[in-house]
Amino acid sequence: MTDYDVLVIGGGPGGLAAAVSAKKEGAGVLLIEREARLGGILKQCIHDGFGLLRFGEKLTGPEYVERFEEEFHKLSISYEVQTFVTSVRKTEKGFYVYAVNAKGVREYRTKAMVLATGCRERTAKQVFIHGTRPAGVFTAGTAQHFVNLMGQMPARRCVILGSGDIGLIMARRLTLEGAKVLGVYEVKPVPSGLTRNLVQCLEDYDIPLFLSHTVTRVFGTGRLTGVEIAGVDERMRPIPGTERYVECDTLILSVGLIPENEMAESLGVPLDIRTKGPICDNRFMTEADGVFTCGNATHVNDLVDYVSESGEIAGRAAASYKKRTGQESEKGRVMMDADASLQYLVPQKLNLGSDLGKVILYFRSSRVLTEGTLTVAVDGQKIFARKYQNLKPPEMERLEIDFTGQCLTKESRVLVSIAEGGGI
Amino acid sequence: MREMTCIVCPNSCTLKVEEQREEIVVTGNKCKRGREFAAAELKHPMRTVCSTVRTVFPEAPVVPVRVSAEIPKNRIFDVMREINQTVLTVRAAGGDVVIRDVLGLGVDVIATSSMLQSFAELKGEK
Ligand SMILES: Cc1cc2nc3c(=O)[nH]c(=O)nc-3n(C[C@H](O)[C@H](O)[C@H](O)COP(=O)(O)OP(=O)(O)OC[C@H]3O[C@@H](n4cnc5c(N)ncnc54)[C@H](O)[C@@H]3O)c2cc1C
Ligand code: SF4
Fold this sequence. Notes:
heterodimer; A: alpha/beta; FAD/NAD(P)-binding domain; Immunoglobulin-like; seven-stranded mixed sheet; 9 helices; 28 strands; globular; B: alpha+beta; CPE0013-like fold; 2 domains; five-stranded mixed sheet; three-stranded antiparallel sheet; about 30% strand; binds flavin-adenine dinucleotide; binds iron/sulfur cluster
């Protein structure tokens, strides 16, 4: 058995950033990845648009993540690939991590761990569609894997259900490779992908977007032969009489991502029902001492730059965890209440152990607002306010707040809310 | 007046573009790149193309590529045709040129991943 200070699960951009920053703090680090290569999901995200915030360049997914891999290898950080973490046990002496790979069952001990397991896609089982179960129904990520990593075309005539970004990206990708994308159908009255993707993936290629529409039925015995589309009302119920048949051989689902947290749940880490990821503090430590979270395992980010940022914070905090004096837990943590005007807020808590200083918040508005003001109040006293233009649920906002000089205690009431309009 | 979305960065600003004789007036842009985008969009829209090329290596049947700089939007499918006719026979690294000066457009098609090299390392070939 080998001993580490920080063990990172997941070799995507989040895990790589965490490992690099922990190593730079002097920690003994091991990273475990279940696939053959590091890079996480970005290996298959071959389109550009990554890293604008961090590098000021429009990189493709592989280019972005390979920059981090390079740094990771330069620091000679230990890692295992094709190794699947099966369970984790917490003891007085640290965490025992069990994993399997070609060499058999492995056991590692570590003082702190970072869960950087990314997210998974919602599947056909999670959306309600009638009819047969023919071949030709894929998630957008699976289609992306086929085309971009295996070089195989899964579709000739296809319909895309859901306007999530990966679906939009795949609409363009399949079109470039010669498939006919008949349309993107979104059940909600507003698109869920980024506006720029609606423009550069759909409009550029004359792919129609149908809002308030859904797929109600699939047809075909062996392979998919067509789908039934219907309009939906405000409560997203299909409207009788609006059904129409669309002939196609492929249905691609782009109906959302969910943070992957099997490992966290097995450790008893409480999850936030809004983010579907672990509740964490400003250093990305979960409710379980010594267990940190980052990237898409924490909440589904729409920009990978923020995934890397959260990995760096989590890795640094995990590295300093071993030096912890116990003082931290005494001072405790204070909850930040995000009211219903926010879809969610990350982090959910503030760690009062060290000087709070500047804290990075990530949030999404619950509603589309052309003008909105976010305020932070402590015990009813407004301590921060910022005006925003064009707040949209699909577009995550990042915000830095300086808490220096705020005398927060465990009993403080911190409330975060967004009011319509620009009045501060 | 025309409304368009700037696709240069994730801010996705809604640009209002007015053509006044020789000049174009852009509003709604948070930075100057929005103006440049609008100007290009009116005269000669440019885009990048990202795709994959086939390889002769079984562990990586395709490798991701992109154009080294933007190309005219109306040449996207021509460039795609060139990309799909190419087969990579060397273990290219990220940034290596796969097609030089594609269709005389003055840009190269470059590999965007060093995956072929990491696979070689995995197999101990290097
Ligand atoms: C199909 C798909 C397409 C996407 N496309 C885009 C996009 O175009 N642009 C964008 O900005 N974002 C995209 N995203 C979001 C993307 O996930 C993030 O931008 C970023 O890759 C998240 O980084 P991460 O490190 O948190 O997770 P990931 O990149 O998903 O990495 C998680 C890693 O953990 C590993 N892992 C999980 N569980 C275990 C375990 N038990 N043991 C060992 N290893 C484990 C996985 O194999 C994986 O390599 C996409 C997501 C998906 C699912
Ligand atoms: S105008 Fe500037 S800030 Fe706005 S989307 Fe374009 S590049 Fe981004």
